[in-house]
Amino acid sequence: MQQFKVSGMSCGHCARAVTQAIKALDPAAQVDVDLAAGVVQVDSDVPAAQLEAAIRGEGYEVSAP
C-alpha cells in the first residue's frame, strides 16, 4: 500500500479525478481517498513516481505523507 499526501482536494469531484488518473495507469488499483486528511492510499504495483505524476497531472500537489 502506497500513501500520498495530496493538497488541494476538497470535494467528490477531486476524489474522482485522482482515482480516475490512477486507474488510467492501473485499472486494477485499489484507491482510497480521504478528503478530510488529504491522503490518498493506493494498492498497486505501479511505481510511486508514476502515481505521483498522475496525481500532479490532475492539478494537485503531492508530498511525502
Automatic annotation (TrEMBL):
Pfam families hit by this protein: HMA
Occurrences of domain HMA (ranges): 1-63
Source organism superkingdom: Bacteria
Keywords carried by this UniProt record: Metal-binding
Transmembrane segments: none
Keyword Disulfide bond: no
SUPFAM superfamilies: HMA, heavy metal-associated domain
UniProt key word Metal-binding: yes
PROSITE patterns, A to Z: HMA_1, HMA_2
Protein name: Heavy-metal-associated domain-containing protein
Organism: Ectopseudomonas khazarica
Lineage: Bacteria, Pseudomonadati, Pseudomonadota, Gammaproteobacteria, Pseudomonadales
